[in-house]
Amino acid sequence: MDTCIHCNNKFDFFCTCCQLTFCKDCDVASCYQNKHYVITMNTAVNRFKKELDEVKKLTDDIKLKIEEKRDSIMNDNNNFQRHKTACKTDIDCLKNKVIKEVEDKCKKLISDLDNLSEERDKVFPNKVDFFDSVMEDVDRLNLSITKLCNPRDLNRLERFEKDLSLTRNKVIDDDQRSLMPKFIQSKRMNDMISCNIIGEIIAYDPDYEVVTCTTNKLVQTGESFTIDVLSSRLNQACQVVANLTKSTGERSNVEVIHVSENMYKIKSLCNSEGDWKMKITVDNRNIKGSPIDIVVVLRLVCTIDNISNNMGKKNTKRVVDVMSLQDGSILISNGSCEVLKFNQSGSFVDSIDSSQNVCNMCKLDDNHIVYSNHVNGPCIVLCNDQFKEIRSFGKDKLAYPSGVTVNKPTRVVYVTDDQHGVLKFSVDNGEYLGRIGRTIIKSEDKRPEDEEMNGPLDVALNHDNQLLVADTQNSRVQIFDTNGEFVSIAICAGQEDGKVICPCGIIVDEVGNIIVSSNNMLQLFNKNGVFIKRIDHKEDG
């Protein structure tokens, strides 16, 4: 209403306390008496319009925020669905890969079973025919015997008896034993299925991201490292929390530095080698790129470069094998009857004489040492820690032995031989226990099959007591189980990092990582044969 109902005049004033409008002729003594705040109508209208504009602006801002939030939620949901689809695709690909590998392995098992059956089928009809023929001969003799009726037939009876004895001997001498097929399921299968070997699903905060490394990082013991984290949120207070834990449960201190509103630096170091995992969270949620697998390897201590200067009796200028002792000292063999001893700093300590030429070495828990000799009279030697011989064995089985390793619980020594693959002996009595793999001569037009070896030079046992064989001339590393059955090709042939050409040395460190020496390269792999890094110096050549 634009006019006063009492005076029919236009409104001139507005009481901000009573929220009433009135004209100049109205009695508003009570408003003034009560010291109300009375303003002109123009002022009231302008103030109202201003507040109305502010409310409309606030409404528009809220609507804009709602639309932005809604769009953000929609985009977030679309991203989630896209990542969900990608995860399902990755899981399906992994599943199909595992299924294919299992199917291929099962086909190989079926093929082995069929081959065994074919071998039996070749023998079985002949066996049946043989005994049918023998039975006919016995029946004929028996018929002739029943016709004998007086003492004048004694000579004939003796002849029949002789024929029966010969037939009996043929039956007895025939080996009726046959091999029965049996499927032996891998003991690790159930453990692998029950363990988290395929992967896991985690939820991460996409507003925070690791920006300085991939999901794997390799450092040396005692080496400090830094990981950068970037945030799309501008935070005044530090929101990032980091924890660094070893697979054994050991923890290491971590420092989180809030560099700027959206940048964090995480600093830490590890004093023991092994597999570590850094978990970076915000509000107990992983960020993008977390957790980070960190592999810690031993730091290079020193280089021993004065070996040839200390080879007195046979200066071959060649290192065949290196072995560390419990006191930290280092033994170096060179294929002669002299073993050199150095301390941890690389200083020469002493030379030790042995009764035979020392090539590759392996220490036992009882301070004894097993070594190979391929120079004169190839054999394996068991000796004490001063290389005094206890026994030697394998002379009638070995041609050119090189790498040696011992399964300490079973006391079985495994030896690579240039002509025979991998041979097994008992450490305690030198008894020959069999061989692993098949040896071949490398052919340019034929790819070597699984289990086939050509000039293997070294062997090692992993933490599952599986055998790792440096298949030198085939340029690969093969894995065999405790029964000597082929498991897989752990490392393939190739010139690039992560592959090998003519591997000549292989060891497994304390945490299960594999170190392979090949073609002037020293490479570190994890326990599954996945390449980690090169650990040699470029200038070593």
Structure characterization notes:
This protein is α+β, with helices and mostly antiparallel strands and 541 residues long. It folds into three domains: 119-194; 205-297, Immunoglobulin-like (Sandwich), CATH 2.60.40; 308-540, 6 Propeller (Neuraminidase), CATH 2.120.10. It contains four helices and 35 strands. The strands form eight sheets. Strands 4, 5, 6, 7, 8, 9, 10, 11, 12 and 13 form a ten-stranded mixed beta sheet that branches. It has a four-stranded antiparallel beta sheet with strand order 14-15-16-17, with no helix packed on it. Strands 18-19-20-21 form a four-stranded antiparallel beta sheet, with no helix packed on it. Helix 2 (41-146) packs antiparallel against helix 3 (154-173). It is elongated. The protein starts with 12 loop residues before the first strand and ends in a 7-residue tail after the last strand.
Per-chain topology:
Blueprint: E1 13-15, E2 20-22, H1 29-33, E3 38-40, H2 41-146, H3 154-173, H4 187-194, E4 204-210, E5 216-220, E6 225-231, E7 240-246, E8 251-252, E9 254-260, E10 263-268, E11 274-282, E12 285-288, E13 292-297, E14 321-324, E15 330-333, E16 338-342, E17 348-353, E18 361-363, E19 369-373, E20 379-383, E21 389-393, E22 401-407, E23 412-417, E24 421-426, E25 432-436, E26 438-439, E27 452-453, E28 458-461, E29 467-471, E30 476-480, E31 486-491, E32 503-508, E33 514-518, E34 521-525, E35 531-534
Parallel strand pairs: 4-12, 5-13, 26-27
Antiparallel strand pairs: 1-2, 1-3, 4-6, 6-10, 7-8, 7-11, 9-10, 11-12, 11-13, 14-15, 15-16, 16-17, 18-19, 19-20, 20-21, 22-23, 23-24, 24-25, 28-29, 29-30, 30-31, 32-33, 33-34, 34-35
Helix pairs in contact: 2-3
